[in-house]
Amino acid sequence: MSEKCPACGTGWLSTDEDRAASMCTNCREWTGLSAPRWHARRPALPCVRCSKTVFVRVLPRTRLDNTDQGVPAAPLVLTYQRNRKYPSPDVTAPAGLLEAWVCRSCGFVEWYCGDAENIPIGLVHGTEVVDVAGDGPYR
């Protein structure tokens, strides 16, 4: 049996994904929380600033339009795949989905990318690979 979505009160939690998120599909898409989740990239270590061990794992989002309060949100990403027809980014194909870990004690924030291996590389994406163990300036 399905239960009503606590976010909107009208949708139904009809799938396992809906129930796990405690939000219907429409609400997850509207709030930008329909992005895939992955295993935690942050190592299980205390905060580097205060040595406490309690964190909040966050999928940071941005509003898609700032002219109204009832606008949808989207997850923060590092770049986008290239548009096949034009040299512009394809905003429907994000890459480098970000998550933040916030220390509950001191507020220190660490950023991690859940799909780093899928980030496209090149000037058109605003990305480059830097090997700090090589002969570069970071040796």
Question: What can you tell me about this protein's structure?
Answer:
The protein is mainly beta and 139 residues long. The chain folds into two domains: 1-34, no CATH class; 38-139, no CATH class. 9% of the residues lie in helices and 29% in strands. It is built from two helices and eight strands. The chain has helices at 16-21, 25-31, and strands at 3-4, 12-13, 55-58, 61-63, 73-75, 77-82, 89-103, 109-113. Strands 3, 6, 7 and 8 form a four-stranded antiparallel sheet that branches. A two-stranded antiparallel sheet has the order 1-2. Strands 4-5 form a two-stranded antiparallel sheet. A hairpin with a 6-residue loop joins β6 and β7. The model has no long low-confidence stretch (mean pLDDT 85).
Label this structure with key terms.
139 residues; two-stranded antiparallel ribbon
List the helices and strands and how they pair.
Layout: E1 3-4, E2 12-13, H1 16-21, H2 25-31, E3 55-58, E4 61-63, E5 73-75, E6 77-82, E7 89-103, E8 109-113
Class by alpha and beta content: mainly beta
Termini separation:
60 Å
Q: What's the β-strand tally?
A: 8
> Per DSSP, what share of the residues sits in E-state strands of 2 or more residues?
25-35%
Total count of helical runs of at least 4 residues: 2
Runs in which pLDDT lies below 50 for 5 or more consecutive residues are: none
Number of domains: 2
Radius of gyration: 19 Å
Mean pLDDT: 85
N to C succession of SSEs: EEHHEEEEEE
Q: What is the share of helical residues?
A: under 10%
- Biggest sheet, open or closed, and with what strands and sense? 4 strands, antiparallel
Overall form: globular
